[in-house]
From TrEMBL:
Domain Protein kinase: 24-282
Organism: Paenibacillus roseopurpureus
Pfam families: Pkinase
Matching InterPro entries: Kinase-like_dom_sf, Prot_kinase_dom, Protein_kinase_ATP_BS
Keywords: ATP-binding, Kinase, Membrane, Nucleotide-binding, Serine/threonine-protein kinase, Transferase, Transmembrane, Transmembrane helix
GO molecular function: ATP binding; protein serine/threonine kinase activity
Protein name per its UniProtKB record: Serine/threonine protein kinase
Transmembrane region(s): 281-300
Domain of life: Bacteria
Length: 301
């Protein structure tokens, strides 16, 4: 991150749109990637996420894609709040403002709540991908770092730098989630490309041995599904999801809606512990209620 970005996104500094004139106050940085920087900002009492791009052309393409998706009747409607330019040290920088989502990373959420929450998270993520696909785009760079999970397993995607119109070459990817990396297909923006990444996301989340870092060091000719099959055999939830994962890795789902239907049928009846109240607390509450009931009878007898 260059010096001028550090200056522009210092907490308390103001970002003023060149064309719309709206002013946003920076609270803190949320992250910085290869294609831009994201900050938590506020306008009055409302809080938003603001992303500024390093490359104007690429960033404008991202804005255009997000605008097209958010104009549909789906969960992305009104996701894009504002788009403008800011001027920093005499240089024009494009930015856009989107809803700010409170939540946890996928890894933190599953670590805290349990792996069985993947049944719910998976359903919600597939719905999000289906909405993007129906809008004529592919997400492209699907990975744990590009999503946020909230309390009830709701999913929000937070980085749209890889969004690509269907039929084009994928413009941004992370190798281990890429089917080309695994010699399992082309880097073309198809719905099956996102579903492949979704399957890798599941396996990576369920892999206790952290083997994916080692996969990055293997030679291309040595990468195959047998390496991933081991994870499915070792983890009970991965084993339950294996029929879906196998089809996803082989790009056998023509559409994400087809994948969602298959997923729902596979996980139907799987229970997720949604109550934060554990049994010891239930027993204590029951005992307390008996005590209060007895005390009440004694006082009024």
């Amino acid at each position: 991150m260059t010096t001028w970005y550090k200056e522009a996104f210092r907490p308390g500094s103001e970002i003023k749109g060149k064309w719309n004139g709206r002013v946003y106050v920076v609270e803190r940085l949320l992250g910085a990637g290869s294609n831009g920087i994201v900050a938590l900002v506020r306008k009055g009492t409302a809080r938003f996420a603001l992303k500024a791009g390093y490359e104007t052309v690429d960033h404008q393409s991202e804005i255009n894609s997000l605008l097209a998706i958010s104009q549909k009747e789906n969960s992305f409607k009104h996701f894009l709040i504002d788009a403008d330019d800011m001027v920093v040290q005499g240089k024009g920088i494009s930015f856009y403002v989107m809803r700010y989502i409170e939540g946890k990373s996928l890894t933190d959420f599953v670590h805290k709540r349990g792996q069985d929450w993947l049944y719910v998270i998976g359903s919600n993520l597939l719905r999000k991908l289906s909405e993007i696909h129906r809008s004529g785009f592919v997400f492209g760079d699907l990975k744990a770092e590009n999503m946020i999970v909230s309390n009830y397993g709701d999913v929000d995607l937070i980085d749209f730098g890889g969004v690509t119109p269907k039929g084009r070459a994928i413009k941004q990817l992370t190798e281990v989630y890429d089917r080309g990396f695994w010699n399992m297909g082309e880097r073309i923006a198809e719905e099956s490309y996102d579903i492949f990444s979704f399957a890798i996301l599941l396996l990576k989340t369920l892999d206790h041995r952290k083997r994916f870092a080692g996969f990055m060091k293997t030679l291309p000719q040595n990468r195959d599904l047998a390496q991933l099959q081991v994870i499915m055999q070792e983890n009970p939830i991965a084993a339950q999801l294996a029929p879906f994962i196998h089809k996803a890795l082989r790009s056998e789902f023509a559409t994400s809606e087809e994948a969602l239907v298959f997923w729902k049928g596979l996980v139907a009846g799987k229970k997720t512990a949604t109550s934060p109240l554990k049994m010891p607390w239930l027993k204590l509450c029951f005992a307390a209620s008996i005590f209060i009931f007895g005390a009440t009878i004694y006082m009024f007898w």
